[in-house]
Amino acid sequence: MPKKAVLLKSLTRGRIRTSFNKYNLFNIYKKSNPDFKTKSLYQQKWNAKQETRAYHGEYLTEGRWSSLFQPKLESVAQLDASLRGDGKVKDTPFLSQTYAVLEKRLDFALFRAMFASSVRQARQFILHGNVTVNGLKIRHPGYILKPGDLFHVRPDKVLEALGARKPSLSEALKVDKTQIILWNKHVKEAKENPRKVWDNKLNKHKNLPEANPKKESITTFIEKYNTKMEKNEHDELKSCTPKNMLIKLLKVQASRKDEATPLTKKDFEGVVEKSPELSHDVYKCYDALEKSKEISLEKLQGKSVKELNNVAEGLLSFTSEMKEKLSDNSKVLIRSGMKQLSDLTKAYSESIRTFYETNKASAETNYIPFDPKWSNNLRYHEKVEFESIAEDEKLASESINLPWQKHVYGRQDPRKPYFTPWKPRQFLAPFAVLPHHLEISFKTCHAVYLRDPVARPGHSEVISPFDDTVHERAYMYYVRKGK
Fold first, then answer.
1. Residue 82: pLDDT over 70
2. Are residues 141 and 47 in the same domain?
3. I need a surface site. Which of 71, 167, 342, 415 has the fewest CB within 10 A?
């Protein structure tokens, strides 16, 4: 039977455990090297034993551990005699191998492979039948692995062990309420002063440290933004033809209310959206065609897009019927309008290239050109009656409609016992130390036990927060009668 989990996370005792718990991280942070100067030899050995055993197999009784302890420690010898004694080869930390025998146990291997958040949780996974070794279900936490053994943990259990805590419905709704308030405040500020909010957001990303994941996300966004701009440029240049320009012009003419309301240059700015100053040239082209009487409001009003397309084709290349019907003056005016349309198309193509070239984002400076219309797509979140949805999770999920979240916070899938969509638990990075004697696949939650951990010159494969001086005294405590 394992020892009871009593005061494992005590900040007063400050013991370091094989756990990813945040209190354990604080204990590691505040732990200082033991002071052996004022203690007797036995006190030194006892203190070292206490500290190391709290980390290495604290759940094992002292009698059980004593039966597992092996006085003979494994290491790798330096075979190249030319390197010995010249100061280049560091000492081999033999005594750091004191607890190496525990690393062979299945429960310890699961923890070292980061398939469980603590050795006690790894034991629980094994006892509940969630672990297989070489394809066979093993229910013994103390199972000794042999070199070449392949062990596997159910992926959903690994996600549970390393995932963030799932909030309760009431906790999640409190977070959602705060998020909605802050989002509506952001939308209001963006609509009132879009330039200021845009610049503040860019400056915030510029000041982030390079290692921050958000810095990487803005770099990825810039790459996608530039790719989208290049695609839009290609599509617009492809569609920038005399025929398409003429169809746009005809649509403006067909949308007039009556003949008494003349069109102005401003009405044609939509035809050359990327360069409104070219609306003057569009108007000159329109004026020439209008005088020919071939694009009068009477002829174009109420026509479909397909019919306007046919009119444009007729103006670009006269049919035999039009040649007979048109007067010489009309033909001259139409040809003049088509020449101006051809020049306009070339000028607008250059304007499109210039527009996209100047509006590309810079990956070096994390600069994205200001878009005056960016806040137009922002929408306020509808008012949510949180009291009425507090007991109905399905209704609550339907009520939350934030741009980045369409469900209750942390409960995208309420059936899962962990935070969904999955994200790693807090303070996981300091514990992410992978051992040399395991080959791990996080995609499939498999790992291979390559060999028993050994000591090399300047390095021990047994992961421990304590140095050689502490392990030396712990080893002395367990070695009896000079063995």
1. no
2. yes
3. 415
Whether the per-residue pLDDT at 290 is higher than 80: the answer is: no
- How many H-runs (helices) and E-runs (strands) does the chain carry? 18, 7
The answer to whether residues 271 and 279 touch, using CB atoms and an 8 Å cutoff, is yes
Structural domain includes residue 138: yes
Residue 86 belongs to some domain of the structure: yes
The whole-angstrom distance between residue 326's C-alpha and the CA centroid of its chain comes to: 65
How much of the chain, in percent, has pLDDT values that exceed 90? 49
Q: Is the dihedral of CA 268, 270, 272, 275 positive or negative?
A: positive
Judgement on whether residues 241 and 321 belong to the same structural domain of the protein? yes
The residue among 324, 339, 359 that closes a domain is: 359
Q: What is the pTM of this model?
A: 0.73
Question: What are the backbone dihedrals phi and psi of residue 75, each rounded to the nearest 5 degrees, phi first?
Answer: -155, 175
- Asked whether residue 38 falls in the same domain as residue 126, the answer is yes
Looking at beta carbons, which pairs linking 192-201 to residues 24 or more positions away fall under 8 Å? 194/372, 194/374, 194/375, 195/370, 197/375, 198/370, 198/371, 198/374, 199/370
Establish if 54 belongs to a structural domain: yes
Say if 117 falls within a structural domain: yes
CATH number of residue 82's parent domain: 3.10.290.10
Measured distance CA(437)–CA(202) in Å, rounded: 45
Specify the amino acid at residue 234: H
Q: Is the pLDDT of residue 41 over 80?
A: yes
- Characterize 74-88 residue by residue with b for buried, 16 or more Cβ atoms within 10 angstroms of its Cβ, and e for exposed: ebeeeeeeeeeeeee
Number of domains the chain contains: 2
66 contacts 479 by C-beta, under 8 angstroms: no
Residue 320: which domain range? Answer: 237-359
Other CB atoms within a 10 A radius of the CB of residue 311 amount to 18
Helix axes 328-358 and 242-254, enclosed angle (nearest 10): 110
Q: Which of 121, 139, 116, 119 is nearest to 129 (CA)?
A: 139
As given in the structure block, the two tokens for residue 465 are 């927060």
Boundary of a domain, candidates 312, 344, 359: 359
